[in-house]
Amino acid sequence: MTGAVAPDSAATAPQERGWRWFVIALALMVAVTAAPRWTPALALLGGTVRLLLPVEQFALLVLVAITACTVVGWWAGGRLSVTLLWLAMASWVVWKLPLPLNGYGAFARGWTLSVGAAFGLICLTTRSKPLLMRAMAATAVAALVTVGGWSMRSGSTGTFDAATRMFSLEYQRRVQESLDRWHDRTESVAWQTFAQRMPAAAERADRLATTLGSLGDVGATGAGSLGTHGPLLLLAPALLGLETLLALGLGWAAYHRLSRVRIGPPLGALRNLRFNDQLVWGLVVGATVLLLPTLAEWRVLGANLMCFFGTLYALRGAGVLSWWIPDRVAAFVPLGLVILVPLLGPIVVLALVLAVTFGLGLGDTWRDFRAGADARRTGSLR
After folding, report:
1. Which of 1, 39, 286, 335 is most buried by its number of CB atoms within 10 A?
2. Residue 128 pairs with which residues in a beta bridge?
3. pTM above 0.70, yes or no
4. Under the phi-then-psi rule, with left for phi > 0, alpha for psi from -120 to 50, and beta for the rest, what region is 4?
5. CA gap 311, 242 in Å, rounded
């Protein structure tokens, strides 16, 4: 049994090309989802990853994204049995999630289901839109549903305070678990021997542990002024949006490799990444809110807008770089960055990369740096 007939654009869409980067992405998905179980030697790195993903169960988001795509695929002519299988599997995983039914557990389940439902409906109603626009629309709808749910449940405490309290408790738990695992590592005989031989490296590790604690520091609960809470806690909405876009993109790519029913064009290469130039207004609004003293109480919103849209433009700038860097040289770029880390420090290297890519991505809005380039690299995700 199949669903409705697919539109011509979906039925004739080209298939996904290549498995190398997709397999690497799946491996990273499994790795970041398993961050709480990383070895004590990697506890600090795992703790940082756990703070960068507001929904720690990243694989669950990807699973629900694939399920939403199968529902759209059934409507486009796919098999009902396959759709029911994915729906049953996703429902079982969401229900059996080892989290309580309140607090963060309720949020993780609610956000995941809201994103999946919104993405499916948007894919059915906006067949001509590119994936990025569909994913952003689904994220916005899920955010509205989540805020509405918090508003009804929070009562007099306020939506912002209720969300902050929930994420504060969750981030505290993650940081404490990671630091406990790291302290178990530092109390071992092997680490004590290493610290005696390499005191500078041991001191650097201690500073990293302190930094991890400050990143997830929840501070005082209250108004949304910058500095009241840890930076990653303040940026949780933007990080959640970026995580959701990534999960939807990975789910989209997985579906089109597993199914013969096309529901849209495949993901393009990073070098072809473009999007609607009107998104620059997200940066404009964010910068305005951050810079105007009269809007000080909205600075958390401004910081999240800058983080979310700034990351999108940094990815666009990375696409510009990958367009112009020859393929033979591109493989050595990550190696060069790794060499620079011990010389300049990871923060400086990261800041330089973000500054260059963001500048290129923002400049590409007004001046198409890829215009008139090699024809073999034509195409876009606009």
Report:
1. 286
2. none
3. yes
4. beta
5. 8
